[in-house]
Predict the structure of NCS2 family permease.
Amino acid sequence: MALSDSLANYFEFEEHGTDLRTEVLAGLTTFLTMSYIVVVNPSILAGIPGEKPGITVPGYSLPEVQSMLAVVTIIAAATATLIMAFYANRPFGQAPGLGLNAFFAFTVVGALGIPWQTALAAVVVEGIVFIVLTAVGAREYVIRAFPEPVKFAVGTGIGLFLAIIGLQAMGIVVDDPATLVQLGAVASDPVAIVSVVGLLFTFALYARGIRGSIVIGIVATAVLGWVVANAGVVGSEAAGRLVAGGPSATYDITPLAGAFLDGLADIEAFTFALVVFTFFFVDFFDTAGTLTGVSQIAGFLDEDGNLPDIDRPLMADAVGTTVGGMLGTSTVTTYIESAAGVEEGGRTGMTALVVALLFLASLAVVPLAAAIPLYASHIALVVIGVVMLGNVVDIAWDDLSYAIPAGMTILVMPLTYSIATGIAAGIVTYPIVKAARGEWGDVRPGHWALAGAFVLYYVVRTNTLA
């Protein structure tokens, strides 16, 4: 039997009304739209001592750490997507998610001061919890345990969070002692000028529907920065900021692999539990929402609007997260960019298989991750952040018992630089507003328990900080 026939039988092409050529093109399309994560994830997770929180490894340069993280990103993405292909037989691509990688670096390692090894341990624990809950079929129970307006608001809040991080790295938004933030020197700072040009170029490509527009925009911006730095039109200090630190790279991930075990040695239980909770909350609902949204485009949903056998793709996500955390990267999630491949006709796990194989092939360009300067890679955060703002339309703004918790989640998340604090604001607000309106039937004991736990945590934490 020919290979094409074997693939057709295994992935059930005929039942799904597709063929090998369509699936391959769909997989290529999905990969092109989400491949930016190979460059962006390392730039977010890698730390710069004294400048940026994140993962730092003594004895290794920033480019070397970034290349390690690129390798781990690729392995985690390929692992999860292969499981999606062969176990779930769905056309969804997976990789470490934007938002939770920023939470990992800027909030957990930065604001909370937790060692990055312990943060990886939290990712692994979250993945294991996800696996167990998925295996026992507890998805419906988990969904009922969290307030609906908070679930709908998280995506928009994360979008704003990502956008602010990106705009800061690009020098477009800077800090100010009087107003907290203000517009940067966009007419005189070479980094800001190149960033604005690159961002507008990327937006134009994205609006045109160009495949791989974000990757093209990132690379084009980095090239423009290199040209400006070497054209003799800026000073040496500015030229140094326009280019990455150096071409050094490594494929050796042993400093990261297994580091989570060291992180389990000394943890503060309450804070660790909050980090695990946040990773799980965002991962679970982001994945479930993405699966449902993309499945609607593909026509996978049943008459009740549910995705049959959703536990299978959820398991792929959970296993990918666990493996990724063990190797050294943040939480894996299903990418909304999978919709691009579905719109090209992808209907089976063959699409996901192509995505996974292309991720493995991208190991050849790992040095590129270390050669892209921070401002160029963070263009992706602003573009995706803007796209994520569209989630706000799902919120019932005409119902104050929904609008207030959702609004608090969206506002608090970027302003406190913490996804966890934004979620906490929504969860605490929800039962109070519902009770004030006399809508006791909508409030479950779990809502009050979560709200009380968050209040207790932040009372203890803010008193400690004071």
Q: What stands out?
A: The first strand starts at residue 94 and ends at 96. Residues 269-298 form the longest helix (30 residues).
